[in-house]
Amino acid sequence: MSTSARLRDRRVNLERRATTSKAVRTSLVSLAGLIGAPATNQSGDEVGRVVDVVARLYGTDSYPPVTGLILRIGRRHTFLPADALGKVHAGHVRLRTARVDLRDFVRRPGEALLAKDVLDHQLVDVDGVQVTRAADLYLAPLVDQVVLVGVDVSLPTLLRRLGPRRWQARPTPERVLDWQAIAPFAEQATEGPPEVRLRASRAALHRLRPADLADILEDLGRAERQQLLDWLEPEQAADALEEMEPAELQNLLREAQPEHAARLVDEMEPDEATDALRDLTREEREALLTRMPKDEAAELRRLLAHREGTAGGAMTTLLITARPDETVAEVRGRLAEQHEHRTEIDAVAVVDGTDRLLCDIPLFDVAVAEDTTPISDLVTWLAQFGPPDTVRADTSLAEAADQLVAARASSLLVVDDSGRPLGRILADDLLDAMLPERGRLHFRRFLQ
Q1: CATH no. for residue 111?
Q2: 15 or 27: whose pLDDT is higher?
Q3: Is the pLDDT reported for residue 375 higher than 90?
Q4: Which residues are in the CBS domain (predicted)?
Q5: CA 394, CA 417: separation in Å to the nearest integer?
Q6: Which of 221-235, 257-271, 326-340 is least confident?
Q7: Does one domain contain both 179 and 88?
Q8: Domains held by the chain: number
Q9: Cα–Cα distance between 4 and 219 in angstroms, integer?
Q10: Which residue among 276, 305, 334 closes a domain?
Q11: Pair (74, 154) in one structural domain
Q12: CA atoms of 284 and 261, how far apart (whole Å)
């Protein structure tokens, strides 16, 4: 999606949000103010005190509907279903009828206790791309039901909750995040297998850049970031892991279940996966490798055999190769099959019948050539500029960097003693390996 399209989609979504409505904002009810508030019948007699609010947090609704209240009646906690609610005021709940059917509360899949599971817990602000905590939650009547519409994350709200009871029921909507911009982490609190999938707000996480997701993963607690990884597609999760700080990635892999960690490493690019495995102990590394498919594990073992700080230790084994008798159209077809690895491929290595390197054709030359052009023609044309620039697996990274700069290239092929390609070392791999102390620049955090 283009930048303009993303901005247009974002503007439309913002305009559709409930908290942009003046009527909704003036009818906000503070969850913090409801906890401990009286619930009265039609006659004004107190039935009990509000202990918590139950909402269907993980469903298809844009705004989670309140499905009931937990009331304390004497020493007993009972469930009051939503259809018995008459009016929910600031600091007061009025019931619809004088007689109510009070039931024992049994949490259903998708439901959450807003005070217990969400208030003061970590949330992801998808719009602001940051991890925050809910200082208060706001309810409002919407389409004949009470729904959760927003989250307050401001410090003054925390102070309000510490003040007198009369202050706690007063919403302070100056910094309200619309619920559609929030991804909560309370699904582990539901009983039984989850029967619902991602809401629109959590689906928005799939539109974030890998670097943004990496920032979020680094800020989340252990349970929350493991849950976030479960929400993401394996390829997207792997892209985010590749952007994480080494120490944070090391902790994440250690705290994950070995089977899950092995799947994540398997989805990473070979060079990035090798770097991640190097940071683990030998026992931890073997625990992951033994849980990977044999071919992928063998490939990573070969990379790990190269010394750190050498071209072989930083290269990727993802190569697109071609034969001189193939056509450009055939090679393009093979490139199209590797579209998910487009950031790792910038050239096509042409090899002879014994797999020795003949030429390294930049993707630009493949792109502008006619479909019917034989690869041998491109090899002949590029031969006038000299042999392809290559390095050996034991070449130091400093030497490889000098050669890359001299060649004015974006990558170098790594070859064995017989001239057979082993892998490719990219310019960004050299930067990552030679400047490990630089870290990633968190401009977003700094500006906030």
Answers
A1: 2.30.30.240
A2: 27
A3: yes
A4: 382-441
A5: 11
A6: 221-235
A7: yes
A8: 3
A9: 29
A10: 305
A11: yes
A12: 10
pLDDT at position 40 over 50: yes
Residue 361 contacts residue 345 (beta carbons within 8 Å): no
Residue 49 domain boundaries = 18-189
pLDDT tens-digit map of 346-355 = 999 999 999 9
Q: Is 361 left (phi over 0), alpha (psi -120 to 50) or beta?
A: beta
3-state helix, strand, coil in the chain (%, to 5): 45, 25, 30
- Nearest by Cα to 42 from 71, 83, 72, 85: 85
Residue 29 belongs to a domain: yes
> Residue 440 pLDDT > 60, yes or no?
no
Pick the closest to residue 129 from 212, 37, 39 (CA basis).
212
Give the DSSP H or E segment for 51: strand 46-56
Q: What are the beta bridge partners of residue 177?
A: 151
Spell out the alpha helix ranges (H) of 280-413: 282-289, 294-305, 311-314, 328-336, 363-368, 375-383, 397-407
Q: How far apart are CA 202 and CA 125, in angstroms?
A: 10
Residues 6+ away with beta carbon under 8 Å from 7:
none
Give one DSSP letter per residue of 250-261, joined into a string: HHHHHHS-HHHH
User: 349, 319 in Cβ contact below 8 A?
Assistant: yes
Report the run of H or E that residue 327 belongs to, with start and end. none
Residues in Cβ contact with 20 at an 8 Å cutoff, skipping those fewer than 6 apart: 14, 178
Cα(72)–Cα(47) distance, integer angstroms: 9
The two three-digit tokens of residue 55, written as one number: 């909402």
Last residue of a domain, one of 158, 189, 220: 189
Beta bridge partners of 111: 56
Strands 130-133, 122-125: pairing is antiparallel
Are residues 36 and 152 located together in one domain of the fold?
yes
Token pair 């849980």: residue: 291
Q: Tell which residue, 319, 367, 361, has the closest CA to residue 344.
A: 319
| 404 and 326 within one domain | yes
Is 413 in contact with 404 (CB distance < 8 Å)? no
Residue 1 lies in a domain: no
Task: Tell me the per-residue pLDDT of 109-133, one tens digit each, with 9 for 90 and over.
Answer: 778 899 988 888 878 877 777 778 8
